[in-house]
Amino acid sequence: MSEGKWSRRRSLLSTSGALLAALASASWPRRGEAAPPSVQAQRLANRLELWHTYARRNQALIARYHVTRWSSLMREPLVGDGTLGAREGERLVFVDDGFSGARTDIEKGRASYAARGDEGVREFPRGRRPSLDWLADRLSRIFGDGEGEGLIAAARVEVPKGRRPQLEIRPPREHPAALDLRGLVLTLDPMGGAVVRLEITEAQGDRVRYDFSDHRQSVDARELEALFGEG
Fold first, then answer.
1. What is the CATH number for 71?
2. Buried b (16+ CB within 10 A) or exposed e, 125-156
3. Is the pLDDT of residue 51 over 50?
4. pTM of the full predicted structure?
5. Domain region containing 157
């Protein structure tokens, strides 16, 4: 589970005072007019609009992922593949391929983890671990079908510069989750807005990166139910 930072003007001494006054008058909003958005605010609005272009159709989503985990306790990163399933922001599941078949299930009010062969499911009720609560809520918003305002609510947000459209989302400094989580970085498809990469970084530097592909929206309910283990 951690996804840079962010021109100067030169005044011409030869410019006449009259011209400077005219420029100043034009640059300040007139009474009754809204101030123009800052460059950073406009870039954020553009990213949220791009994300929402795809997310508004996320009522039933399935995608494949390749996951890479880095840890200070491991000499080499762990890699794997799996399937993501999401339903209307209400339920989200990551199911790893391979022998372990580990699955992380996030539903409003709870999160759970289990691997194939486990005698039981490890439940993480909401309220016991603030960092897990914040992360589970954020993931539900990322793959849900809500508005952009909800995606960045109760979070610090930056828009990294670069050719790839990204959003960096962090817990508020005063939130207990900031003790464990540095934050996460979303990378969006520049044309359609789908989340193509999610990188989560813990406070001590360990991180996990999901690279998503083969996104399918509006999948058959039975396919999603099978992935969730329902029915």
1. 2.50.20.10
2. eeeebbbbbbbbbbbbbbbbbbebebbbeebe
3. yes
4. 0.80
5. 37-228
